[in-house]
Backbone:
């Protein structure tokens, strides 16, 4: 136990490379051991089956060479014929022919120690009874190891007297045992060589495979505030490690985007807050050092309050924008008829439209069902309507409507206003971005940014088309989501 604890403290044994390589070696060793055991068992079975088949063939051949003369068995062979002599000599190595009383008439054995078992009258009578009972030859093994013999015994009938004789044929298993031992020895020699080769290959392969992890580790250590977007080159294998690298690169990109967003947010906030705070400070200082009448102080306070209100609106808008971009605003979605909502909001904006002498109308004539958050979508539509009225000259028009578009729905707000120059269109949804305008009171540059964030949170997109002097067209495309069928009444939030 103490040795194991000491080994676990060694850094090499705690590395992922060592664990992968050792696991690979262990599995390979188990597989090789199973192959060795199964191979030995299979080889032994094959040798036993082959030996039994050989003995059966020899027993059949022995019966063919034995003839009975005057009730006694004799070899019926031409000893001058080399082929017959060779075949009979092989059969004569180990054989026994005995009568039904167990007395041996013919027999021989290469091993004198085998004669005691092979020529035993009691054993012969017992096997004759067994053969008579089972009608099958008796197969047995005598001895063990290098002195093992396999014997098959059966009967042969004297055609003249009808008397049954005991006949047995055997073979030495030493050759089979040598083959089996050679197989085991070769396997035992091969096993450590294979394990060493496997260890080297496993160590090399695991090290090569973990290079990608090492590159991720080095990249993570190298990341600082100045290189948050650090990217790692993919290997092109499209495997788990490549997917890990891809995930790391995406995470690095998100970190860079988030930090840039925070940095830009801080810069924008400081810039936007500085103007009203400077104005408030200047107005109050002027009033403090130069005001001599009550009316002057009152005027300075009123101007300061206007800047404070502007500052409060700015902080509120920034808070809502920050919450929406970070996903902190809960989305309470329900099935809503956007056509009715657009008509309702257009009615609410009639008074400011009339005050600006702008004709405001709705062109929605159908039920447009969509699963959205009513409060957030109202903010989208009101922002678009407010901007359209604000930037449409006297005598112009603003039109809003909603319509079905397959699996999506569209909300369109268009006007005949001043339009947006083409070089400003790509930036109008950026935070604090404002198209140059002589009137500084026309907005903070947060409305369209807030609109884009809400639309994105709903899984939609916002598009804009504009021509200077001809007007603009804003189109919000939202997925309809899970809505009721046309035959069911729509739920209006």
Residues:
């Amino acid at each position: 136990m103490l040795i194991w604890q000491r080994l676990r403290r060694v850094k090499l044994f705690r590395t992922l490379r060592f664990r992968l390589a050792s696991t690979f070696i262990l599995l390979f060793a188990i597989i090789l051991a199973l192959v060795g055991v199964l191979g030995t068992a299979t080889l032994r079975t094959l040798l036993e089956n082959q030996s039994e088949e050989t003995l059966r063939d020899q027993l059949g051949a022995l019966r063919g060479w034995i003839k009975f003369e005057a009730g006694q068995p004799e070899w019926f062979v031409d000893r001058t014929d080399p082929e017959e002599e060779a075949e009979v000599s092989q059969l004569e190595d180990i054989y026994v022919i005995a009568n039904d009383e167990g007395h041996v008439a013919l027999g021989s054995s290469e091993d004198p120690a085998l004669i005691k078992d092979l020529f035993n009258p009691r054993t012969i009578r017992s096997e004759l009874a067994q053969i008579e009972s089972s009608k099958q030859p008796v197969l047995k093994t005598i001895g063990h190891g290098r002195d093992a013999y396999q014997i098959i015994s059966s009967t042969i009938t004297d055609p003249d007297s009808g008397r049954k004789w005991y006949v047995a044929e055997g073979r030495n298993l030493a050759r089979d045992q040598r083959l089996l031992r050679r197989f085991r020895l070769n396997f035992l020699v091969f096993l450590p060589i294979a394990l060493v080769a496997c260890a080297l290959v496993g160590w090399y392969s695991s090290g090569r495979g973990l290079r990608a992890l090492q590159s991720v580790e080095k990249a993570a250590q190298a990341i600082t505030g100045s290189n948050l977007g650090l990217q790692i080159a993919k290997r092109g294998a499209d495997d788990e490690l490549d997917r890990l690298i891809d995930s790391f690169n995406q995470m690095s990109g998100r970190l860079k985007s988030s930090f840039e967003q925070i940095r830009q947010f801080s810069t924008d906030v400081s810039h936007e807050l500085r103007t009203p705070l400077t104005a408030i400070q200047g107005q109050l200082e002027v009033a403090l050092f130069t005001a001599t009448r009550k009316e002057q102080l009152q005027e300075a306070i009123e101007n300061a309050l206007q800047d404070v209100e502007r500052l409060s609106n700015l902080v509120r808008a920034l808070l809502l924008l920050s919450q929406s971009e970070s996903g902190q605003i809960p989305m309470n979605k329900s099935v809503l008829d956007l056509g009715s909502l657009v008509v309702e909001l257009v009615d609410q904006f009639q008074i400011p439209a009339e005050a600006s002498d702008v004709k405001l109308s709705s062109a929605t004539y159908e039920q447009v069902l969509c699963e959205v958050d009513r409060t957030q979508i109202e903010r989208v539509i009101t922002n678009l309507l407010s901007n359209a009225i604000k930037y449409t000259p006297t005598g112009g028009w603003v039109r809003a409507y909603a319509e079905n578009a397959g699996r999506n729905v569209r909300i369109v707000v268009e006007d005949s206003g001043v339009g947006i120059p083409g070089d400003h269109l790509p930036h109008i949804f950026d935070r604090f971005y404002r198209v140059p305008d002589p009137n500084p009171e026309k907005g903070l540059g947060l409305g369209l940014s807030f609109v884009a964030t809400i639309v994105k949170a709903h899984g939609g997109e916002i598009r804009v088309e504009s021509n200077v002097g001809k007007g603009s067209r804003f189109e919000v495309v939202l997925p309809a989501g899970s809505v009721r069928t046309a035959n069911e009444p729509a739920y209006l939030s």
